[in-house]
Amino acid sequence: MIKIAERLAHALEPWKACLGKMTLVCGIGMVLLGFPSQIYANWKAGECGMDPVLIMVALVLYGVRIPYQVSARVWYLLPADVLGLLVSIVLVYQYMIY
Q: Which residues cross the membrane (predicted)?
């Protein structure tokens, strides 16, 4: 498993700076777009619900951050972000079926 991760890290090395910038942009997008849209949607509906913008921004954030972490060999953040990606996928699924 370590060999596969190291090969993937080596393959992603040229993309490290680009993935880092994309991670920063997505993280800022989560704060500036996702959370305010969720707060507004909750206020407008008078109930707590998930806004699709928040779900998609989180999905993109984790989808970009995981390859960046592999390329940077930041293994200690990987488990939390993989869980975040899985939760985001569940939220997309729930949004689609409800």
A: 22-41, 53-70, 76-96
The model carries a pTM of 0.62
Q: Could you list the residue range(s) of the whole structural domain that residue 78 is in?
A: 2-97
Which residues lie closer than 8 Å to 14 by C-beta, 6 or more apart? none
CA dihedral for 9, 14, 16, 22, sign (positive or negative): negative
Two structure tokens written together for 86: 């899985």
CA distance 29 to 34: 7
Model pLDDT for residues 4-56, shown as the tens digit of each residue: 989 999 999 999 889 888 888 887 887 788 767 877 887 888 776 777 888 88
Are the C-beta atoms of residues 30 and 58 closer than 8 Å to each other?
A: yes
**What span, in angstroms and rounded, lies between the C-alpha atoms of 83 and 85?**
5
Of how many residues is the chain composed? 98
Count of domains for the chain? 1
Which pair of tokens denotes residue 72?
A: 């940077």
